[in-house]
């Protein structure tokens, strides 16, 4: 803790030279000012004691490991992040010492700990620091950790052949440290959370403060999740595939609850635990679920760059806990007559909107989908925050109120159609929509009304016996004016819709915007 002060002294011309203190030197002076008295005293002629704890550490190109002898042979293991893996071997070996101390801190407090490492530079750096800032930073972390927890630390070099256990575990590669994208986790945490415990995780990818890991690592709540009861937590489970069956059985034994993410592999050994072949449906303990069809960006890469879980899109479907779908319930009917009715039900649902409306919703939802994919956001099901930001994006783009409404209701329609819980009923979204309409609304410019005088001038211009197009214009103008008809209503009139009587003309309007249920309207002229 005096390295930067010594550097300044060494750079001075003479003892009376006036030194300009650096920020690092000031930090060191403040450290000694605050800690000189509280620090434990050390004799110039110390008495040798046997260590309370003996630890071996090692690091490979992709992981660090530590092995504590007197703590029931506890194993510490941590995969390096991509940035850490690029660092020097001394950086990784020194980090392995800190990670091991931090991971097993309760076992080391108020004890004399002796650490064996096969890197000689680590011994020197722990004792005297380093000129390299990143190594000095780790050395200070080790120093502060020991001071705060009353740990007397001794570090000694051993040849590699005497460090075989730590060397073995440092070469263990974790092929299962892929994880769910934070966007999806935050969405489901807001929907069914808050989750209390990340059951299968490690220091690099844990989503929650409480998490269980395969080996000891910093901040872990315990090693081997199956050694704990899960019934006190609302669990978040993303198990390695080979542990899915065991995780499901453990959840049933514990009578726990939670959300589990699994690939939909119907030929796997865990599938019969989830699916009842006799009833052709999920088991009763599966309360809610959703199926993502070959999703993109659902999982994030861990250490294994070739994992099948990081392909985008995935080559398989993913099952997820969700609001139970009525469409899935319809699959339980085995009777042929009932099955035929369930098949046609979808067309009945889509008939609740006109063809033009469905076409419009499809286009607007497609734009929303592409916008979400651009920013790696979920679009079906989506989140309240995602929709709110998207609506604000449209508002800031200065779209019309019609476009804003169409975007909002297209998202709502897709969620209603897929029978997802409609987040579009959220008060925040209602306020964003209302605010956008107020901001984007423009003064209404009403069209000038057509008067009898205007009609007379049109007839005077076009009413000629030898001008059939002119007569047609006159007829359309007079019919539209006297019947309050829209242009599309006029354009769809056929000869079969006309009935000529002695006193009047009767016109049947088969299709009208105001006639939602196609009951038809008859006008007399």
Automatic annotation (TrEMBL):
<dbReference type="GO" id="GO:0004523">
    <property type="term" value="F:RNA-DNA hybrid ribonuclease activity"/>
</dbReference>
<dbReference type="GO" id="GO:0003677">
    <property type="term" value="F:DNA binding"/>
</dbReference>
<keyword id="KW-0238">DNA-binding</keyword>
<dbReference type="GO" id="GO:0006310">
    <property type="term" value="P:DNA recombination"/>
</dbReference>
<dbReference type="InterPro" id="IPR036397">
    <property type="entry name" value="RNaseH_sf"/>
</dbReference>
<dbReference type="GO" id="GO:0015074">
    <property type="term" value="P:DNA integration"/>
</dbReference>
<protein>
    <recommendedName>
        <fullName>RNase H type-1 domain-containing protein</fullName>
    </recommendedName>
</protein>
<feature type="domain" description="RNase H type-1">
    <location>
        <begin position="84"/>
        <end position="170"/>
    </location>
</feature>
<dbReference type="InterPro" id="IPR052055">
    <property type="entry name" value="Hepadnavirus_pol/RT"/>
</dbReference>
<dbReference type="InterPro" id="IPR010998">
    <property type="entry name" value="Integrase_recombinase_N"/>
</dbReference>
<dbReference type="Pfam" id="PF13456">
    <property type="entry name" value="RVT_3"/>
</dbReference>
<dbReference type="InterPro" id="IPR002156">
    <property type="entry name" value="RNaseH_domain"/>
</dbReference>
<dbReference type="InterPro" id="IPR011010">
    <property type="entry name" value="DNA_brk_join_enz"/>
</dbReference>
<dbReference type="InterPro" id="IPR013762">
    <property type="entry name" value="Integrase-like_cat_sf"/>
</dbReference>
<dbReference type="InterPro" id="IPR012337">
    <property type="entry name" value="RNaseH-like_sf"/>
</dbReference>
<keyword id="KW-0233">DNA recombination</keyword>
């Amino acid at each position: 803790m005096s390295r930067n002060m010594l550097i300044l002294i060494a750079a001075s011309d003479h003892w009376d030279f006036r030194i300009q203190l650096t920020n690092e030197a000031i930090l060191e002076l403040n450290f000694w000012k605050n800690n000189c008295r509280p620090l434990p005293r050390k004799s110039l002629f110390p008495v040798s004691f046997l260590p309370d704890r003996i630890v071996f550490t090692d690091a490979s190109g992709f992981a660090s490991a530590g092995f504590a002898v007197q703590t029931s042979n506890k194993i510490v293991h941590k995969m390096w992040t991509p940035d850490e893996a690029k660092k020097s071997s001394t950086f990784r070996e020194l980090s392995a010492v800190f990670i091991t101390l931090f991971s097993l801190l309760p076992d080391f407090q108020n004890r004399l700990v002796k650490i064996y490492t096969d890197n000689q530079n680590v011994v020197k750096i722990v004792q005297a620091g380093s000129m390299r800032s990143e190594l000095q930073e780790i050395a200070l972390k080790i120093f502060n950790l020991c001071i705060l927890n009353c740990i007397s630390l001794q570090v000694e070099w051993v040849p590699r052949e005497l460090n075989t256990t730590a060397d073995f575990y440092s070469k263990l590669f974790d092929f299962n440290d892929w994880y769910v994208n934070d966007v999806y986790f935050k969405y489901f945490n807001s929907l069914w959370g808050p989750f209390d415990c990340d059951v299968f995780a490690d220091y690099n990818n844990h989503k929650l403060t409480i998490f269980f890991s395969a080996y000891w690592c910093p901040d872990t709540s315990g090693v081997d999740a199956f050694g704990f009861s899960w019934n006190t937590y609302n669990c978040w489970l993303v198990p390695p595939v080979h542990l899915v069956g065991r995780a499901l059985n453990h959840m049933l034994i514990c009578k726990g609850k939670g959300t589990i993410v699994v690939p939909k592999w119907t030929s796997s050994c865990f599938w019969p635990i989830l699916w009842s072949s006799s009833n052709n449906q999920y088991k009763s303990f599966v309360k809610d679920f959703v199926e993502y069809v070959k999703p993109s960006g659902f999982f994030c890469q861990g250490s294994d760059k070739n994992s099948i879980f990081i392909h985008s899109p995935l080559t398989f479907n993913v099952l997820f806990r969700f609001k139970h779908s009525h469409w899935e319930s319809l699959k339980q009917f085995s009777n042929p007559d009932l099955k035929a009715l369930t098949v046609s039900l979808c067309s009945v649902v889509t008939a609740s909107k006109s063809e033009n409306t469905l076409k419009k919703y499809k286009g607007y939802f497609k734009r929303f989908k592409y916008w979400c994919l651009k920013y790696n956001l979920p679009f079906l099901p989506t989140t309240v925050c995602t929709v709110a930001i998207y609506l604000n994006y449209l508002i800031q783009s200065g779209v019309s109120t019609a476009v804003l409404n169409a975007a909002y209701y297209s998202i709502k329609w897709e969620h209603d159609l897929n029978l997802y819980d409609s987040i579009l009923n959220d008060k925040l979204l209602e306020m964003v929509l209302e605010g956008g309409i107020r901001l984007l609304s423009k003064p209404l410019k009403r069209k000038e009304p057509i008067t009898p005088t205007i009609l007379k001038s049109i007839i005077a211009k076009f009413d000629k016996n030898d001008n059939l197009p002119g007569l047609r214009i006159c007829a359309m103008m007079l019919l539209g004016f006297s019947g309050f008809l829209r242009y599309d209503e006029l354009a769809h009139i056929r000869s079969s819709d006309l009935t000529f009587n002695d006193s009047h003309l009767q016109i049947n309007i088969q299709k009208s915007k105001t006639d939602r249920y196609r009951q038809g309207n008859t006008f007399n002229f």
